[in-house]
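I had to read the description of the data format several times before I understood it. In essence, backbone conformation is discretised, so a fold becomes a row of integers matching the chain in length. I therefore recommend that a typical entry be quoted early in the introduction. For illustration, here is how one protein appears when written out as sequence plus structure tokens.

***
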Amino acid sequence: MTDTDWAPHTYVTRPYRQRIPRGPRADRMLREVTVALPPHIADLDLALERPVAAMTTASAGALRHLDLVHGRTMAGLNHLQLRTEAIDSSKIEHVEASLADYGRALLGIGANASAVSMASATQAMERLIREADTTRKITSDAILRAHGDLFGRHPDEAATAGRFRTVQNWVGGSDYAPRDTLHVPPPPETVVDYIEDLVAFANRDDLAPIAQAAIAHAQFESIHPFIDGNGRIGRALIHAVLRRRRASRHLAVPIASALVAHRDRYFAALGDYRAGTAATIIAMLAASTTIATTESWKTAEALDGIRRGWGGAAGDPRPGSATYRLLDLLTEEPILNAPLVAERLRLEDATETIEALERAGVLVGAKRSRRSPVWLAPAVLGEVEDLSARIQHQARQLPYGPR
């Protein structure tokens, strides 16, 4: 990789004072801070060395092939991938919950704060991808709406959900002031201009999609336009760029599952980007996409086998029957309740159909759900966990990372 292949960030020292004095004396007495000023990238050219360029081409080609073969015919695969991606993207931010609690949160039934956060991350990612797909554009408004989805239900963050920050933030170091930090993003008054520049870059069509998605993500993390949620929205932006460029028309492979396996290297690659080397994060994203794509082929085969096995366990229900349609739905919604099934299958009462599959061993009742019963499809949920574990295992075998 070249020593520098991208414009490095510059830095400027600015006055700083806490609005509300708190924390240790060193934080309360801090009077200046050095902030990073990312380059404006809307019109920058990118020249990659041949090995990295080849990685991006091969990665995008493999993704398109998976999408061509399974994208149109396996809605369940995309749903499973999205959930795996949202779960592991949240894990990078140390937000974790059980799959059962996550499913309750998706259904809008009582769940813990971490599960609600993971469900909100899923909703935010789905929105950003959907809007990029339907409008063929990345917009600042879509980014704001996705952030609103992420924090709209958060008791402490709802007031700033869907709004760019108006204060100085920082990454790492003290909780009370930008001291001993890993990164201090640009001043709040520059955020809107930087985001519009980023959006212009993300809407270009003259760059390799994987490289474009990687740079858009790294630039977003440098801008850090929100008080919180930048990592999850930034990783959702990767998929939005890939969908807009039609690198994938239907699927969102779980790239975050590979990144979480190399959390420190991932953050170091973002540091390389700030220093003027984009190739590190591009190579990491290309390798992560390739691994996620390869393992998703195995998941597609597993889902097909699970669905066929269910048919036998349920007595080979007639195509078009409520039981048959519920088995199809379970590959998309492996955690469900009676209202969801009734709505999706247009049934007056879904309980009897659900209980029949419970007796067949296809579904199990979730614990702690007597008042609002929830059922789980363990075979599909096991594949969610297995897909993530396989991707992480393969990612750990690779030497990619900072120079």
